[in-house]
Amino acid sequence: MPSSSATRPFSTTSHVYPSHLPTLYKSGRMEKKFATATAAVVGIGYGMAKYKQYQEQQQYHNAAANEASRRHNEAMMNAYADRSSLAELEAAVEAYEKHRKS
Fold it and tell me: How many other CB atoms sit within 10 Å of the CB of residue 96?
């Protein structure tokens, strides 16, 4: 005859894990979503920072090229002068020939 302190029969529906594990499993899904969203935000931020840095470098290089071009044009204008005299005209032709050869 069974005693009053009989154990429960084993079945596959018995819970073999502690009761707090399902809560951790569910929160893990939330943490995965949070980690994915965080990684996406960090990645987008990094990409935007790199793009901004690239744009600044391009502006710097363009400004330097424009400055060099402006100086070159100014030097050519100074070399050609106003050509009001024969000496200035000869100097302008000489400067033009030097520029063509280089």
Answer: 13
Any idea which residue has 């931020």 for tokens? 45
Alpha carbon 51 to its chain centroid, in Å, reads 4
Least confident of 6-10, 46-50, 75-79: 6-10
Per-residue burial over 68-78, b if 16 or more Cβ lie within 10 Å, else e, is eeeeeeeeeee
CA–CA dist 34, 28 (Å, integer): 10
Domain extents in the chain: 34-101
Give me the helices (H) in the chain, please.
21-80, 86-101
Q: What is the pLDDT of residues 20-74, one digit of tens each?
A: 555 555 556 677 888 899 999 999 999 999 999 999 999 999 999 999 888 888 8
* Chain center to CA of 3: 74
CA angle 87, 93, 98 (to 5 degrees): 125
Decide: 63 and 53 in contact? Cβ < 8 Å: no
